[in-house]
Structure formats: C-alpha cells, structure tokens
Amino acid sequence: MTVTEEEMGCRFDAFLAQRLSEFSRVRLREMIDKGAATVNDQSRKASYRMRVGDRISLVLPAERPAGPIAEDIPLDILFEDEQLAVINKPNGMVVHPAKGHWQGTLTAALAHHLEQLSEIGGQTRPGIVHRLDRDTSGVIVVAKNDAAHLALAKQFEQREVTKEYFAICYGRVDRDRDMIDAPIGAHRHQREKMAIREGHSTSRDASTFYEVDQRIGNFSTLRVFPKTGRTHQIRVHLNHIGHPIVCDVLYTGQRTITERQVQRGTPGGPDLLTRMALHAHRISFEHPKSQQQVAFEAPIPEPLTDFITSLERLTNSRSR
Predict the structure, then answer these.
(1) What is the DSSP letter of 86?
(2) Which residues of the chain fall short of a pLDDT of 70?
(3) 133 is catalytic
(4) What pLDDT is stored for residue 161 in this prediction?
(5) Among the four residues 121, 122, 220, 264, which has the most C-beta atoms within 10 Å?
C-alpha cells in the first residue's frame, strides 16, 4: 500500500483502519505494536503521521484453525464403544482449545485416537459433553455421535449423572459429612476466578456434598459429590468453608507443598506435591444406547497417594 495525497497527515492506525475495514482498530494497533505493520520497512508508532509516497507493509498473523488439529498425545482410554469413550484425563491437560492453549489439548488427542466424535459442541469442542479444569485429573466422558451427545447432555442437565471426586484439603474438617449450599458467580476483581456471591447476575445455585475419608495431621482427604456443575464448584465451596484444596494455586496462591510446610508451616525443604489435589474419581450414568446404568472409575493418581503416605509418615514421626 502506498500513501496518497488525500491520506497525507493521517495517523498510522487510522490509515490502516480506512484501508483494512475488515480488521478492528484494536487488532491493527496490536499489529503495529508487534512490528507486523511497517512504514518503508521500518516500525512506527500508531500515532505516526502518513507522508505521501510512504510504503505500508503488513504481515497478517496466521489464522488459527477453527477446530483442534490431531496430535499424537498418549491417552488413557478407560472404555470405548460405538457411542462413547471414557478417558482418564491427566493433570495439566486443557480439555479444548482456548486462548493461550491451542496445542496439547484433550480434543487434539481425541482427534488422533478416535475415528468419530460428536459435532454438537462445535468445531472447537468435538465430543465434549462436560469438562474438567486443566489441573483436575480424572474421568471424563466423550460422545462419539450426536445422538449419544444429546442423551448424555440431557442427563447432565437433569442432574442424573453421579460424579465422585477425591480431594485433599488443608485443615481437619470437623464434620464427617455435610452439604455445602452456596451460590457461585464471577469473582469481583479476578476474571479467572469464581466466588460465593448472593444475588449477583452471574450467580447460580450450587450444592456440594462431601464425606471425610481420613484426617491426617492438619489435612483431610474427602470424597466429594457435586450436585450441580458450576465452574470451579468444588474448589470454591471447599475454600468457602475454610478448607481449600492442597496446591490449588488459583485459590490458595500455593502451587507446591514441601515437607517443611507440612511439619512446621514454614517454606523450604523438598517438594511433597506439585499438582492440585483434586481428582475426578468415578462417574455413573445411563448408557445412551443400552439404557443400562454404567459406572467408570479412574484410579487415584500416584502423586496423590504418595503425598498421603508422606503425610502419614510425618504425622507419625511427630507423635513419637
């Protein structure tokens, strides 16, 4: 593109906006700031004033694919038939593509391993009926055709699916079992977090039942049964009652926990756990074709069982 007399004195960003109406002003400014748009092969600020004869070059960023690109990522497939697949999702894996997470997703792995997936979720979420947070491991159900997807989605919507999670939380939970009923909505200040919020436009009713499995020193292991499926529900509810999940960096600020923290509550020492202590352990629902009740279980990961062993060892050593 070459600047004409009529365009002389126009700001760089305004010039691009006039010539390239298909792009937003914000996106054009980003290209200017990144040096993807140049004047006479030189980077300029958005406020630069055009001169007659200036040559404008623009390198457009590559378009992101609408759907996931198949990637040969190992998958732990617990069950598969012509209707669905049940996967043991590893900790740290994002379920579907999103900003900042275009590769290494569960959907990319599914596209490689499975010949068919439902299309109801759209191009970015083929087969995805429900989801797990990136740092939550465990059992997730995937639909292989649209009829199965609709049947499963209906069960989730009507709360006919039973989900059991395993969690390790800070503190000795005093009640052996209890129901947490507290509405969850968007956090007031942090977009990536959720919070307990009464009467807000984003708030939705949320219910979580839990049972204490063990109390070990200043920690508790829980079996958790969410009755609703709100974003971050278990994490927010346990944090709300004063027992946040171990190594939940978003809600505790701690990504790891060390031996010294377990023993004395002070930083330092070797890491005992480097992942969030939340695992989707079991799920049961009605099979969309046979209409029989089925259940699938993902074993509790070794890092969590090893951490429990360490807690028992450290607790016993203190009591001697």
Answers:
(1) E
(2) 22, 61-67, 97-102, 318-320
(3) yes
(4) 97
(5) 220
